[in-house]
Each structure stands twice: as structure tokens, then as C-alpha cells.
Amino acid sequence: MAHAPRLDEEDGAGVGLERVTNVAEGGAVGKDRLPVCAGAREQLPVADEGTGERPPGQRHDPPAALGAVAEFEGFAERSVQTVDQGQTRFGKLNAHVSSGHVVRVARNLRSHRLGEENRATKRERKLLVAGIEQWGGAVRMLELAGPRAPRAGEVLIEVKAAGVGNWDDIARAGNWDLGRTAPVALGVEAAGVVAAVGSAVETWSAGDEVLTHPLPLVDQGTWAPWLIARAADLARKPTAVSWTVAGAFPVPALTAVQALNDALGVGRGDQLLVNGAGGVTGGLAVSLAVLRGARVLATAGPSSRERVLAAGAATVVDYHDADWPEQIIEATGGRGVDGAVNAARGGEAGALRAVRDDGRLATITSDPPELERGIASRSVYVRPDATQLEFAAAELGAGRLEFAVGARFPLAEAGAALVRAVAGRGGAVALEM
Ligand SMILES: NC(=O)c1ccc[n+]([C@@H]2O[C@H](COP(=O)([O-])OP(=O)(O)OC[C@H]3O[C@@H](n4cnc5c(N)ncnc54)[C@H](OP(=O)(O)O)[C@@H]3O)[C@@H](O)[C@H]2O)c1
User: Fold this and answer.
1) Each residue of 55-86: pLDDT tens digit?
2) Residue with CA nearest ligand 1 atom 43
3) Considering only CA atoms, which residue is closest to atom 26 of ligand 1?
4) Residues of 104-131 as b/e, b for ≥16 C-beta within 10 angstroms?
5) May I ask the CATH architecture of the domain 128-248+409-432?
């Protein structure tokens, strides 16, 4: 895989990336190698698209077309000049090549009239994202600046899919510090293709397929076509995992891993309760705990029961039964579980009841119960961890985890996607770019 062009920090502003060619490494990109193709649509005016003949005044061949085959990976540029209604224009055409094809073409067209040049440049540096104007505001499409070029330790990702969870509503309300001020694109998980890397990034190259939980946000959230993220927060996307699934996976996966590993230290032979196993995070906790050799007892409603059993739970009880904690204790021979993950809002007290004396409880619902009988409790708040994410993604790619996307929406319908996620029925929710 060719290395992406490295961009110095001062190269930064705008999507145009005009200076990429000047700093490209090892001949991986170059203006002479930008594919030329008649029939291009998203480009400078071409008089005769059918024949590819040059329009009057155009000195160069028609520039790159979406989908054209290219010999390199990453960004490249080409100089162009046209005469349009007597006005001479010149500029740069930038193409992004991924997997051997041009996937994006942008132009930075200047004219001799300064006002026009400024307007053209400004237009190119806008990004249509889904987010909020102020904390607590409704989700809608916003035009924000960017994306800029990645700085040291950062990568620019072309987002393919992004997850939507009930936690995004906590962020929308201003109760989760994302590290940015509004207006801001929401979204804290995504999957996509690395488009360019900043200096001091050794691990990733243009064209790499990745997923990430990129908090605190470097620039904007993930509900956007482009994302700047720290290279250290990326994990490799297995090819067997679809973009949509990979985009919605990082937050529930990291939360489940961190509850089992960091908070409970679940090991072989432990008896573990997962309360809320019918949910996205709870379902992952079941399969991950089974992989660690635990005997899993779970709560789920009737419609999720079979799925939770298929994920490897030894016993599933219906949380609608008032005595479900006692049913769990009975299933452990009267002793109670060694540890419990509570992944159901309001389910902390019930989960605690099922834990044996001196056992452990991890809750992900921010509402730890009053402790009793020597039980230790931890509240888990998801945090980025590339190693944990890569491990979980590999297990998902190998088909060893239970995880499904129940609803997918286009970016423009992010508000409806959030409503669906908050309702919390039927799997994860994803935005597809
Ligand atoms: N702390 C963190 O970092 C973090 C990270 C991720 C999520 N969370 C939180 O964890 C909770 C779960 O989120 P999620 O997205 O994984 O869940 P979800 O997919 O929205 O879970 C919904 C499912 O939970 C089950 N459920 C509902 N009420 C229940 C109850 N009283 N007892 C047991 N199960 C019940 C239902 O499944 P069935 O009826 O089909 O069984 C429902 O379909 C949310 O409060 C979320 O905000 C926290």
C-alpha cells in the first residue's frame, strides 16, 4: 500500500489540500499521474464530454473523473486553466484515490477577479454534517468549515458509516463532554477509509480501513463525510465486517470489554449475570464473557430470548418477572453470581440482588446502587482504547460475537436515527454516508 502524503501542520486549511503534491513522499502521488478521463462531471468546464476535446483556451486535458482507475493511493492534484465567457480561470484539481479508483474530486478554481476567487475557495471549504447549533438543540444538517489536513499524530478519514446510540442524546443535551463546543457535528463512533495521515503517523496509510471511538473529538463528530481522528484511536476493520456494522460497533464493544475486563476481571469459570442482554451492549457482553470462559446468566424479554441463548448464555430469565433476581440465584445453586454487568436503565438494584456476598457489580447506566454485603461496584464510562477495539473487531470478523444493526439511515436523517436509538428496540442504529 502506498503511503499517504504527509502534510505539515501549516499545510492545513481546507479540503483543497493544494500543497499535497509538493510534500508527497517517494513519488506515491504526483500531478503527472492523476488520471485523465473524458466524461468527468464534477470538474472544470469541458466543452465536449463525448470526445474529450479541449474547450477553447483550456491548456490541459480534462481532469480526473469519479471512478477513473488510478495507479496510486491518496491525494493528487493537477493544474488546469479554462476560458469561460471571456474570463480566464486557473486552479488546481484535487483527486482522492482509494482502492485504485478516484473516489472524490474537488476543485479550487480561481479567477482574476478577487471576489470570485474568495467565494469559490470558501464554498470548497464547507462540510455538510449532522449536528447541533447549541447544546440541547435539535439535530439538523449544518454547514461547517473543513475538513482541514491532519496534523501530527492525526489522520483524515473518509467516513463510510457512523453509529447512533442513546448516548448521543446525552451528548446532544450537553451532559457528555465531547471536548468541543457547539455548533458541532455529533457522533462518537465511525468506520471509514484513511485518506491522509499527518506527520509522526507510522501505523496507518491511505486506503486502510478502520473503525474508531475518537474522543475527545479532535475537530468534529463522526456524523460527517470526513473525520479527523487521532491515529492512536484507530483499529483495523476486518474485511468480513460491513461498513455499517463497523460504524456502529466501537462504543458498545468498548463498553462491554471495559465492563468485563477492567471493572470485573471476568475469568474462566466465573458465573456472570448480564442484565439487559437483549440490548446492543448487553448482547455483546454476553458473547465476550462466553469467550472468556464465563458461565453467563442473562435477563432478556421474550423477543430477545433465543438470540441471547444463541450468543452463549446458559440461562435466560425474563426481566418482566418481579422475582427475576431470585430466579438467577436459584440457577446458581442458591449462591448468587460472582459478578454482574448491569446494562439496563433502572436495573442496578435487581442486578445487585443477584450477586453473591463479596461479589462484583459493574453498571454502565450511571446510577450505581447503594452497596451491601461486601459487594464492590464500578460505574463504567466508555473510553477510547485501540487495542481493546481491535481485539473486539477481530472477534466480530471471526463470527464469534453477537452484534446486529437493526436500522440504517442516510446522514440527512440523523435526527430520526437518534429518535430510533433512544427508543432502544431492535439492535444498533447506523448512518450510512
Ligand atoms: N456508560 C457508558 O459508557 C455506556 C455506553 C453504552 C451504553 N450505555 C448505556 O447503557 C444502556 C443500554 O444501552 P444499549 O444501547 O446497549 O441498550 P439498547 O440496545 O437501547 O437496549 C434496549 C433493550 O434493553 C432491554 N431492556 C429494556 N428494559 C429492560 C429492563 N428493565 N431490564 C432488562 N432489559 C431491558 C430490551 O430488550 P428486550 O426486551 O428485547 O430483552 C430493549 O430492547 C443505556 O442506558 C445506555 O445509555 C452506557
Assistant:
1) 444 433 333 556 666 666 666 655 444 445 44
2) 425
3) 276
4) bbbbbbbbeeeeebeebbeeebebebbb
5) Alpha-Beta Complex (3.90)
